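4.2 Preliminary Data

To establish feasibility before requesting continued support, the project team ran the inverse folding procedure on a target of 64 residues. The structure was first converted into the token representation described in Section 3, and no sequence information of any kind was made available to the design step. The complete token record follows.
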């Protein structure tokens, strides 16, 4: 939900703060860590066998 401030223009439009549903960009979404249970930033690391995995930035645990 976003809040949009609008000015009254004619009788058809409502003035004031209006709440609307809107999509958010994927860069504003955080992943939940399985171990610490907090929203966290994600970093990437290569394992010994050459596989690229996502790592929790706060507890350094593998997320996948």
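Position-by-position output of the design step:
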């Amino acid at each position: 939900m976003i809040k949009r401030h609008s000015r009254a223009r004619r009788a058809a439009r409502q003035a004031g703060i209006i709440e609307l549903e809107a999509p958010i960009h994927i860069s504003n979404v955080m992943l939940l860590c399985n171990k610490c249970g907090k929203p966290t930033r994600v970093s990437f690391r290569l394992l010994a066998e050459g596989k690229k995995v996502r790592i929790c930035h706060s507890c350094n645990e593998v997320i996948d």
